Amino acid sequence: MNFGLVMALLGAAIAASAGIGSAMGVAIAGKAGNGVLSEKPELFGKVLVLQAIPGTQGIYGFLVAVLILFKIEFLSLTPISLSATQGFAFLAVGIPIGIVGIFSGIYQGKAAATSIIMTSKDPSLFTRGMTMTALVETYAILALLVSVLMWNGISI
């Protein structure tokens, strides 16, 4: 395996690490959700939606990782050979969504947790809480866009 290919694979791994933020965010929201559901099980549907929202960063990171792997033909029996420059370009592709995904997933989980608590006190505020939680998503989407635009600009 050549150096450029290793760097490209590292880029895919960094992109996929956005799932760390999603896992943490979903867990943070889940803790709040479990507390609420122990007293108000009828709110399960609303709590589930709020808990699931921080999971999107992991999906975005996975998407970028797969885009990288397909472009370098890693899933074929004979991956292509990449120059160091190309490898570093793919490494750079994974960084925006990987790093932003970790932090936005965690902070979105915190926003979701407080929205879950707010919904438990007044279920009519669910959509407001969902809106506040979704605002954090904006930065993950921007990072995804940057990663995809960078990926699109790499020629092999």
Mean pLDDT, nearest integer? 95
Number of distinct helices: 6
Under CATH at level 1, the class stands as Mainly Alpha
Q: How large is the radius of gyration?
A: 18 Å
- Largest sheet entry: none
For the terminal residues, how far apart are their CA atoms?
Answer: 17 Å
What helical percentage do the residues reach?
A: over 70%
Low-confidence stretches: none
Quick structural gist:
With about 160 residues, the protein is an all-alpha fold. About 80% of the residues lie in helices and about 0% in strands.
Topology, please?
Layout (H helix, E strand, L loop, with lengths): L2 H14 L1 H22 L4 H9 L3 H16 L12 H38 L4 H27 L4
Helix pairs in contact: 1-4, 1-5, 2-3, 2-4, 2-5, 3-5, 4-5, 4-6, 5-6
Looking at this protein, list some descriptive labels.
single chain, 156 residues, mainly alpha, Four Helix Bundle (Hemerythrin (Met), subunit A), 81% helix
Q: Can you characterise this structure?
A:
The protein is mainly α and 156 residues long. It has one domain (3-152): Up-down Bundle (Four Helix Bundle (Hemerythrin (Met), subunit A)). It is 81% helix and 0% strand. It contains 6 helices and no strands. The chain has helices spanning 3-16, 18-39, 44-52, 56-71, 84-121, 126-152. It is elongated and about 60 Å long. The two termini are 17 Å apart. The relative contact order is 0.22. The mean pLDDT is 95.
